[in-house]
């Protein structure tokens, strides 16, 4: 569905866009490095099935780490809490999202949470399916249901770029394989994870996914309970404690909503029982979050008192 253009929202985007020059594109994944540093877009999807947007809304982007929330929901539906959290913890970490340190130093050597790369790889490994193709097909079908958009697909250029440069993720996998956290072929898992992260969409699609979580797992358009209420609650809690990498505490204080970012510059935000927010701004701060996206969320939260705390 088309979004209404909001002059008020456009003004906030214009203010936030000024800080894009202070960030950096994630060029360690070569295909992501082709993004335009000055891009910024936002869509807000209300649970009453209305939406508004502003900025470079026609630009598409890949989910990257935002996909971790969707995979976690799918795997919890596949296996239940006890199975998943036997292999992945629930605690936030102050380390970078791709760090191997806690795997080496934590007592039971399982990943601390599903929002860091080690935990996300372990969760992706749990997707039900006879092979990586079936697992990806199930993840894509789930994403299409959440967005109510059958055109959602993988950007194979970015997936290939990630696969070819995923040396640290391979290291995490082999470390976890040693301790029985993951099983199966590591290259198959890296291929699946790269494609999961490279699922492509627009800000409106992302805002719509946020609206599903805002309604405790019920889709605002179809009114279908796609995600069980308690699983939606778990996912939103992880977004508050771990969703913005090692800036999650500061973000909770300054913005105060469940959110998940990705190094493509995407951010999915949730205002429970009101709306979902989809943002794209590929210029990143030093912690890997969209620098203008966070600025925009600060402005929105202050202006409309969005904090859940």
Automatic annotation (TrEMBL):
Transmembrane segments: none annotated. Its EC number is 3.5.1.2. Keywords: Acetylation, Hydrolase. The keyword ATP-binding does not apply. Pfam families: Glutaminase (PF04960). Gene3D superfamilies: 1.10.1500.10, DD-peptidase/beta-lactamase superfamily (3.40.710.10). SUPFAM superfamilies: beta-lactamase/transpeptidase-like. One of its GO terms (biological process) is L-glutamine catabolic process. Signal peptide: none annotated. The keyword Ion transport does not apply. It catalyses: L-glutamine + H2O = L-glutamate + NH4(+). One of its GO terms (molecular function) is glutaminase activity. InterPro entries: Beta-lactam/transpept-like (IPR012338), Glutaminase (IPR015868). Substrate binds at residues 65, 117, 162, 169, 193, 245, 263. Homotetramer. Belongs to the glutaminase family. This is Glutaminase. It comes from Metabacillus idriensis. The lineage of its organism: Bacteria, Bacillati, Bacillota, Bacilli, Bacillales. The gene is glsA.
């Amino acid at each position: 569905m088309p979004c209404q253009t909001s002059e008020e929202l456009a003004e906030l985007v214009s203010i936030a866009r000024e800080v894009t020059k202070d960030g950096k594109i994630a060029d360690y994944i070569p295909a992501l490095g082709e993004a335009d540093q000055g891009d910024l877009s936002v869509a807000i999807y209300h649970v009453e099935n209305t939406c508004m947007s502003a900025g470079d809304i026609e630009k598409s982007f890949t989910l990257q780490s935002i996909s971790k929330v969707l995979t976690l929901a799918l795997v919890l539906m596949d296996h239940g809490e006890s199975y998943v959290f036997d292999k992945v913890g629930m605690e936030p970490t102050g380390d970078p999202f791709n760090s191997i340190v806690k795997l080496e130093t934590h007592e039971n050597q399982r990943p601390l949470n599903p929002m860091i790369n080690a935990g996300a790889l372990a969760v992706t490994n749990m997707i039900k399916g006879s092979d990586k193709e079936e697992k990806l097909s199930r993840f894509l079908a789930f994403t299409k249901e959440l967005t109510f958009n059958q055109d959602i697909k993988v950007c194979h250029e970015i997936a290939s770029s990630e696969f070819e440069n995923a040396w640290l993720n391979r290291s995490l996998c082999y470390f976890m394989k040693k301790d029985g956290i993951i099983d199966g072929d590591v290259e198959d898992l890296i291929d699946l994870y790269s494609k999961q992260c490279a699922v492509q969409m627009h800000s409106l699609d992302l805002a719509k996914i946020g609206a599903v979580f805002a309604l405790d797992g019920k889709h605002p358009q179809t009114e279908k309970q796609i995600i069980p209420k308690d699983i939606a609650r778990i996912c939103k809690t992880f977004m508050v404690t771990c969703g913005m990498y090692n800036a999650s505490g500061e973000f909770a204080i300054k913005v105060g909503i469940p959110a998940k970012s990705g190094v493509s510059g995407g951010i999915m935000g949730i205002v429970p029982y009101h709306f979902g927010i989809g943002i794209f701004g590929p210029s990143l701060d030093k912690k890997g979050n969209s620098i203008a996206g966070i600025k925009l969320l600060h402005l929105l939260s202050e202006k409309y008192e969005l904090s859940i705390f």
